[in-house]
Amino acid sequence: MEFITDQSAGYLANHLARLFARQLQGRIKPLGLTTGTFPALLVLWEGDGLTQRELIDRLDIEQPTLANTLARMERDGLIVRKKDAADARAQRIWLTDQARALRAPAIAAAVQVNNDALAVLTEAGRDQFIALMRRVIAGMQEPAIDDAEDRREAG
């Protein structure tokens, strides 16, 4: 079996993600942000006060990765962690005023990267491209959900 990179969905998706990240990094670096912290900020801008577990679930990343990201965000003055009033073992993650102030310019940067990247497509092509990516992502997440349920039942 031959592997042809420009016909591999995984290879192309990875390459596209790196190109998007590079472009985004160039636009958000002047704001003091990185592509590593940006996904967590997007979730927290929608509503902060989440637990680390809630962030892990929403970002679909591993716990050690998020722990490192949150440590950097705390160091950079973007978040504070406070004990959960109902569960002393849990911490809630709250945005600082500094992080809230970065929302508009950071999102504008991301929108511009998306617009620039998708400018080669028609409006209908952009809509179809986004819809197909969502469909593939949903299809790939379903087995992960089934696997997690199987592990809970077996445990």
Automatic annotation (TrEMBL):
Which UniProt keywords are given for this protein, alphabetically ordered? DNA-binding, Transcription, Transcription regulation
Q: Where are the transmembrane segments?
A: none
Question: Does Transcription regulation show up as a keyword for this record?
Answer: yes
Q: Where is the HTH marR-type domain?
A: 9-138
The reply on keyword DNA-binding is yes
Q: Name the Gene Ontology molecular function terms of this record.
A: DNA binding; DNA-binding transcription factor activity
Q: Which PANTHER family match?
A: TRANSCRIPTIONAL REGULATOR, MARR (PTHR42756), TRANSCRIPTIONAL REPRESSOR OF EMRAB OPERON (PTHR42756:SF1)
Q: What is this protein called?
A: Transcriptional regulator
